[in-house]
Design goal:
Elements (H helix, E strand, L loop, with lengths): L14 E7 L5 H15 L5 E7 L11 H9 L16 H4 L2 E4 L2 H10 L7 E4 L20 H23 L3
Parallel strand pairs: 1-2, 1-3, 3-4
Helix pairs in contact: 1-5, 2-5
The structure holds 4-nitrophenyl phosphate.
């Protein structure tokens, strides 16, 4: 039985996924772009993705140029995205709310309503390989950190797609 009151997507393989990091200019826009691209390649026309930050410092900004450059080098175009902050109605609008690290997850859980029906958890929990538990914040590090974000986000996106495909 479908849980009352929740407008779960009806169609096969459909899901609404929100990726959350701190600033919404590095990790979560990368996750959105990679997941959208891999889902499309996998023939999943019914997934909707978005991203946001727990913080408000970068609201309205495009992704960090180091992030867009690293993503573009692998064929992901994300420069059109604009940062926004997590808001309370996101818990009604998304089936999955996936945090990049444990601090992000804690902040998301603090905002989560008591009767939250979204799956709220760590994005890296969906990776099938021996990936670390978190996508580390690359903002204050060197260029290698941005490539590592892509490696981790690709692994977790592939795993999330397998999960969504197996769901029904
Ligand atoms: P993100 O990276 O959370 O992956 O977007 C950060 C971007 C900006 C800041 C921290 C992390 N900041 O402190 O401004």
């Amino acid at each position: 039985a479908v849980r009352e009151g929740l407008s779960m997507p009806e169609e096969a393989n459909s899901a609404r996924v929100l990726f959350v990091c701190l600033g919404n200019i590095c990790r979560s826009p990368t996750a959105q772009g990679v997941f959208e691209s891999l889902a499309k390649q996998a023939g999943m026309a019914n997934v909707q993705a978005d991203s946001c930050g727990t913080g408000d410092w970068h609201v309205g900004s495009a992704p960090d140029s180091r992030t867009t450059d690293a993503a573009a080098a692998r064929g992901y175009a994300i420069a059109h995205l604009r940062a926004r902050q997590l808001q309370s109605d996101d818990f009604d609008r998304f089936d999955y709310i996936l945090a990049m690290d444990k601090a992000n997850l804690h902040d998301v859980q603090t905002m989560s309503p008591r009767d939250c029906r979204s799956h709220v958890g760590l994005f890296m929990d969906f990776a099938r390989d021996r990936s670390p538990a978190e996508v580390p914040d690359p903002y204050y590090g060197g260029n290698k950190g941005f490539d590592q974000v892509l490696n981790l986000v690709e692994a977790a996106s592939a795993g999330l797609i397998l999960t969504l495909k197996a769901r029904r």
